[in-house]
Amino acid sequence: MSVQIHGSIAQEPEREWRKAIGHGLKGRCPHCGRGRLFRAFLKPVDTCEACGEPLHHQRADDLPPYVVITIVGHIIVGGLLLAEKYADWPMSLHMAIWPALTVLLSLILMQPVKGGVIGLQWALRMHGFGGEPDDRPERQPSPHQPSPAQPMPGQPGHHR
Ligand SMILES: [Zn+2]
After folding, report:
1. What is the pLDDT of residues 80-111, one digit of tens each?
2. Membrane spanning segments where (predicted)?
3. 72 domain-assigned
């Protein structure tokens, strides 16, 4: 993920990133905070139903899982160490609690975290959220468009 700095940013009003992240965490449009951000689990809407803000620019990609792994890892490892130190749990209880809690926390946190990441991207005008075209071809609102496989330049190919 790269932060893009465009020349026109200076003239545009600054977007409040804390507020945008807060709206995203609550699953709301980072712009107005009213419209839904997700149409299904982890599937963001293309445009806000309340204010019309285009949201298909989002490119949260794999940052939300990284953030969730960091949060859940700290909770689980910390809890496990505390339980080991202060409680005398049998191994079967450990095996019942920690894997289940890991899965549960990950599922609970993934969508809010993704919303927060989208809010930050919107506030920073990344990936076309500022109106400029992105450096990569824009993701179309309709998914399932397989891109044709292209050979990498410099790859060993057919030499005569
Ligand atoms: Zn909105």
Report:
1. 999 999 998 999 999 999 999 999 999 999 99
2. 63-83, 95-113
3. yes
At 105-128, the pLDDT tens digits run 999 999 999 999 999 999 998 877
Residue 80 within any structural domain of the chain: yes
- Total count of residues recorded for the chain: 160
Q: What angle do CA 33, 21, 129 make, to 5 degrees?
A: 80
d(CA 144, CA 41): 17
Give domain status of residue 3, yes or no: no
Print the domain residue range for 26.
Answer: 16-123
Distance from the CA of 44 to the center of ligand 1, in angstroms? 12
Instruction: Please answer whether residues 77 and 102 qualify as being in contact, where contact means their C-beta atoms are separated by less than 8 angstroms.
Output: no
Q: Total domain count for the chain? A: 1
pLDDT number for residue 160: 42
Convert 88-126 to b/e letters by CB count within 10 Å (16 or more is b).
Answer: eeeeeeeeeeeeeeeeebbeebbbbbbbbbbbbbbbbbb
The rounded distance, in Å, linking the Cα atoms of 65 and 110 is: 7
What's the CA gap between 34 and 116, in Å, rounded?
15
**69 CA from centroid of ligand 1 (Å):** 29
**51 CA distance to ligand 1 centroid (A)?**
4
